[in-house]
Backbone:
């Protein structure tokens, strides 16, 4: 698939930082005309590489002081359908991310809460009561860093 | 502090991050000027950090995604710093998190295929400093990913 040139990659990096930059402003930065920039962005969207946008909010400033990563093992595989579990867990507003994984656990969840006692409430009332839940392991997030990923290097 | 109107703006915006301030104003039933002022204030206060494009790594050809849960040798004083510094040099690492719990550090790694992953794992990950133990969770499917806050 990777027929992206250096300019495409530079555009991707810039948009992953700030999606609100206009084609004109990006074009001036990378030495392209406004229509040429617009065509490149369009192409990246059509290829599915630019998959929508995300509003970045500061969770702590909004009162969400605790983020927990949960590993969940299902206790009754086969009897409970995975779809039932997935539907129920995805409907919990505090659950931000749900991934079906292979390994020590069956699912990986990212959960936000106001504080540890709020997290305990979510865990006991919402997560432990989900259909088929077995073992749960919680790790409280201390720091997080998002990296640009392999945009710049490979060709 | 945030009032109900701020929260309403954020809820709509979070659900559709491509909306303009004028469109958000329409959805909230307020004037565009008022919406713009609220948004500017929330940006200045650091509540709104920005709007970012989401890159689909699978569409870029990176079809393998693995979550590596790492325990470090904490008898080494600078174990965390050394490890994280070295992990930043691995381009295929897209997230680095540190935890309080059984796991010390988590790396999210993407690769083109299993052979590529194997290569990154052997040459770049296992050579990172101060690793005591590693567990891998391979992603099968992403069920929910928008990372919205329950406002």
Residues:
């Amino acid at each position: 698939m990777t027929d992206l040139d250096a300019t495409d990659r530079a555009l991707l990096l810039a948009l992953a930082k700030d999606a609100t930059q206009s084609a004109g402003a990006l074009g001036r930065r990378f030495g392209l005309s406004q229509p040429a920039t617009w065509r490149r962005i369009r192409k990246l969207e059509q290829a599915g590489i630019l998959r929508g946008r995300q509003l970045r909010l500061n969770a702590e400033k909004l009162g969400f002081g605790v983020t927990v990563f949960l590993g969940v093992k299902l206790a009754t595989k086969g009897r409970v359908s995975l779809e039932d579990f997935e539907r129920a867990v995805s409907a919990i507003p505090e659950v931000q991310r749900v991934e079906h994984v292979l390994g020590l656990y069956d699912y990986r969840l990212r959960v936000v809460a106001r504080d540890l006692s709020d997290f305990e409430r979510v865990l006991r009332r919402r997560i432990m009561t989900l259909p088929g839940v077995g073992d749960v392991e919680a790790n409280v997030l201390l720091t997080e860093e998002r990296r640009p990923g392999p945009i710049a290097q490979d060709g | 502090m945030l009032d109900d109107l701020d929260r309403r703006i954020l809820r709509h915006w979070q659900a559709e991050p491509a909306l303009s301030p004028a469109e958000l104003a329409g959805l909230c039933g307020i004037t565009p000027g008022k919406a713009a002022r609220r948004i500017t204030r929330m940006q200045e206060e650091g509540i709104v950090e920005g709007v970012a494009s989401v890159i689909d790594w699978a569409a870029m050809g990176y079809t393998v995604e693995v979550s590596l849960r790492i325990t470090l040798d904490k008898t080494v004083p600078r174990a965390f710093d050394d490890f994280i510094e070295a992990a930043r040099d691995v381009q295929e690492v897209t997230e680095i998190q540190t935890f309080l719990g059984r796991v010390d550090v988590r790396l999210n790694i993407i690769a083109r295929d299993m052979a590529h992953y194997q290569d990154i794992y052997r040459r770049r990950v296992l050579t990172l400093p101060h690793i005591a133990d590693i567990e891998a969770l391979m992603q099968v499917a992403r069920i929910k990913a928008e990372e919205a806050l329950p406002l």
